[in-house]
Structure formats: C-alpha cells, structure tokens
Design a protein that fits this description.
Elements: H1 2-27, H2 42-56, H3 71-83, E1 117-119, H4 127-142, H5 165-175, E2 183-192, E3 202-209, E4 212-220, E5 224-225, H6 234-247, H7 257-266, H8 272-278, H9 281-295, H10 297-303, E6 306-313, E7 320-321, E8 324-332, H11 339-352, E9 356-363, H12 374-386, E10 391-397, H13 403-406, E11 413-422, H14 423-426, E12 435-437, H15 438-453
Helix pairs in contact: 1-8, 2-3, 2-15, 4-15, 6-11, 9-10, 12-15
Length: about 450
C-alpha cells in the first residue's frame, strides 16, 4: 500500500509540473516590445549594391600552397581605394572560398546586381561586412565625424585557410598595450527560420567557437590477393570501428547556457508545441538534450564534439588487399570535451579493433566571451536599435573565425554579422548561388555607423 501511495505521489508531482509548464507556455512573452523596421531607401540600396559588386568581381581566393600570392588582394585594394576615397586604413576578412561554376546558376564572380540582390561568391561570407564597415567609416569621415574613442579596422587575407593574418593584428595591439573595449568579427547573422516554427528573426551573437583537430586511424595487416581474402583485413577493422562510433556516439553531450539561451529567446515566437518544450527548459532540458542530437546533425553539433570521417586510403589496386589502410576523422571540439579527452575516448574504441590512433594536431575551443559586461550590453542595444523587429541571443559558432585570436586578449570578442538571411540563404555560405539582398547592405552600413557613433 505504501508503494502505491508513493507512486501516486510521484504521478501527482509529474502532473503538477506538466500543468505548471502548460500555464507558463501561455504566459511567456518576448522580453521587449518589438517594432517593424524602417523601410529601406531603394535608390540608396542600388547605389551601394553597384559599388559592392565591384568587390565581388575580384577573385580574392586564398590557397595554402600559394600564401605569397597577394596579387588578387592588391587588386582588391585598388578597387577599395576607388570606392572609399575618404579612408584607406584597413573586422571582416577579404578572402573567399573557391566556387565550382559548373554547379552555379550564374558565374560565381559576376557581381551582378538584380532588382533585389547582389550575386556572387563572398556576398554573404564576408565581403558584405567588409564593405559595410568601410562604407560606414568612409561616410563618417566625409561628414567630419571624429569618434571619441579610437576605432581599429582589421581585415585578413587568409581566414578561409586558417591563416595567421589576424594574429598579426593581435600582436600589433598587444605591442602597443591596446586592450579593445569591444571586438566585433563575422559570425552569427540575423536569421529567419533558424528554429522550428519560430516566426521572428533571431540575431545570433557568437560568444565562442568550437575547436578543431584531425585524428588518423590506421590498421595494419598481412595484405594479399583479393582471390583469397582473410577475415578482419585492415579495411574490415576500420569499417567496424567507424560503425561503432556512428551507431554508439561515445562523446559527452551537454546543453551549455549559451545554447539553452537560443531556445529560451525564440520560444515566445514559436508554435504552441515547441513553445511548451523550449519555453520550459527548467523542466524539459534533460529531455531536449537527449532528443536533439538524435533528431538532426545540427542538434548534435550544438551539444557535443562532433566526429566526421572525411578521408580514407587502402590498396593501390582493385585486386590487392592492403597491408595498411587508414581513415581520417575531423573533430570539431566542444567546450565540454576538448582535443585530448576526445582523442582518448576514440583511441580506446579503436584499440578494440586493433586500430592505431594518431592525433595530427588541432586547437581547443575558444574562451567564452562575457555576456554580462558593458561591451555586450552595448552591442545588444545597438542591434535592437537598428533591428527593432528581431530577437537577440548568444550563440555557439560551429566553425572557425579570426575572432579566436582576439578572444585570447579580451573577454569582449563577439562574432556577429549584421546581415539578414533566411535558413535557405544560410546554406549558400560556402555553397552554391551565394547572394545577398540589397537592403541588407544598407542596414549593415547603418549598424556599423551606430556602433561607432553611439558609444560614450
């Protein structure tokens, strides 16, 4: 009988908690009153777009084997001197990733301006912010504006190949004993449709970025002719290892506050079912943490170090069993589990299949930027003032940016691009048919002006 009472008590508590969550789902509201953004001047957007297109036409590609080839960037500088006559002391990077024109609907570096967009590689990543910063500063100089504080603009030419261009800027500031109040690099954008059923766009401020490493897994065997294949060949053992990791994800999973905030901020604008879940993280956080990685790869990336098997090699001939085979894994390490710990977990699994693991180097996740200091609050206010229709949330960057160098010298290094895009446009970054709305350029310029002018 006592057990029955206990079960009824537990059941009653569960019902009560679910009822509280249900009531909360009806009363949660957006933290501030949002407004419709001002209409963009179409003539001005076309003027800016025509200037910006000149920068898109320059093929500023960076290659690891051609680090000393600066000709495209020198050409870019000449174009920028023409566009920005009032300023030429140049955080966005100038280089872009290559583009396969065979799978694009237009020439990747055409820089074509349509009624609504500018087309071409680099429009989103990230010549748009480069243009926006320079144009904002150029027009402020033209209007004789002198900022109360020093403003430094840094732009690298090797961000896409994980170069050290930005590190040179950090070294310069360090040598001059300059500690930035606020560092703003590319990163999260103003995204519509980033979460299921969310009706409002969310401005995502990157406050950390994941780490990076490669691990080589090698299996050794006797080799031989394919006509008499033995069991447990190197490729077979590697296959078992990969299958084990894929089917039984071995690394830690945790929802850190910087991830939970995204769902909390978006919850009021979601449909009821999602609002019920994400608006009551105090109750459903364990369930969401368990389910999210199983639903999609993006959910896994937000909550864990990820493992992607990307390269492999076996025999040189189709009828020869290799005496040695390997597979390469690329890891994007989460703050909850760094390079060393992730390697040790995978190495232990590999040993079960007589596979050797070798760490090929990497870097840890960046420090987490401060979201309670004045610099963050100022950035938050600047976003809200310029984009009154959006929600704002901290965000974890899944890829790398130049900002990681600056985050070592200040806890106020943030990753945010003031560019509007929907979930489909996000896919164009490093993808095909990259383009940007003309109105987004105008908004970005206004944002950067506001960021410089309004700080006291």
């Amino acid at each position: 009988m006592i057990i029955l009472y206990i079960l009824l008590g537990v059941f009653g508590v569960i019902i009560l908690l679910l009822l509280v969550a249900l009531i909360n789902s009806f009363i949660i509201k957006i933290e501030r009153k949002t407004e419709i953004s001002s209409e963009i001047d179409r003539d001005l957007s076309t003027k800016y777009a025509n200037e910006f297109s000149k920068m898109i036409k320059v093929k500023t590609l960076s290659y690891v084997k051609e680090k000393n080839n600066l000709n495209p960037f020198l050409e870019m500088h000449e174009v920028m001197k023409e566009i920005f006559p009032n300023v030429y002391k140049v955080m966005a990077h100038q280089d872009v990733v290559p583009a396969n024109e065979n799978v694009w609907d237009f020439e990747p570096f055409c820089g074509e301006v349509t009624d609504t967009e500018i087309l071409g590689r680099g429009t989103l990543d990230t010549k748009s912010t480069l243009y926006g910063i320079f144009k904002a500063v150029d027009e402020l100089i033209e209007n004789d504006y002198i900022p109360e504080h020093d403003v430094y603009i840094s732009s690298s030419t090797d961000e896409e190949i994980s170069g050290d261009g930005a590190l040179l800027s950090v070294n310069f500031l360090t040598e001059k004993s300059i500690m930035p109040y606020l560092v703003l690099d590319e990163g999260g954008a103003i995204v519509t449709g980033s979460l299921p059923s969310a009706k409002m766009p969310i401005a995502l401020i990157g406050v950390l970025e994941k780490g990076y490493c490669n691990i080589k897994f090698t299996a050794i065997g006797k080799g031989g002719h394919s006509s008499t294949p033995p069991k447990n060949t190197p490729i077979a053992r590697l296959s078992k290892f990969v299958t084990d990791v894929e089917n039984n994800f071995p690394l830690k999973t945790k929802m850190i506050p910087e991830v939970a905030d995204i769902f909390k901020k978006a919850a009021p604008s979601m449909s009821f079912g999602y609002r019920y879940l994400f608006g009551n993280m105090w109750l459903f956080k364990p369930l969401i943490t368990y389910l999210l990685p199983k639903i999609n790869s993006y959910g896994r990336a937000l909550l864990s170090t990820t493992v992607a098997f990307t390269m492999s090699k076996g025999s040189e001939a189709e009828n020869v069993i290799p005496s040695e085979a390997y597979i390469l894994a690329n890891l994007r390490t989460h703050p909850i589990q760094g390079v060393k710990s992730s390697f040790e977990v995978l190495e232990k699994i590999a040993l079960k299949y007589d596979v050797e693991a070798k760490l090929l180097g990497g870097r840890e996740a960046s420090p987490i930027s401060n979201t309670s200091n004045d610099a963050y609050k100022y950035l938050l206010k600047t976003i809200i003032d310029n984009y009154p229709d959006v929600l704002v949330s901290p965000y974890i960057m899944l890829g790398a940016t130049d900002c990681r160098f600056f985050s070592e010298m200040t806890d106020s290094a943030f990753r945010f691009s003031p560019i509007r895009m929907n979930s489909e446009e996000v896919k164009k970054i490093h993808g095909t048919n990259e383009s940007i709305k003309k109105t987004s350029i105008v908004e970005a310029i206004n944002f950067y002006k506001s960021l410089i002018i309004n700080h006291k």
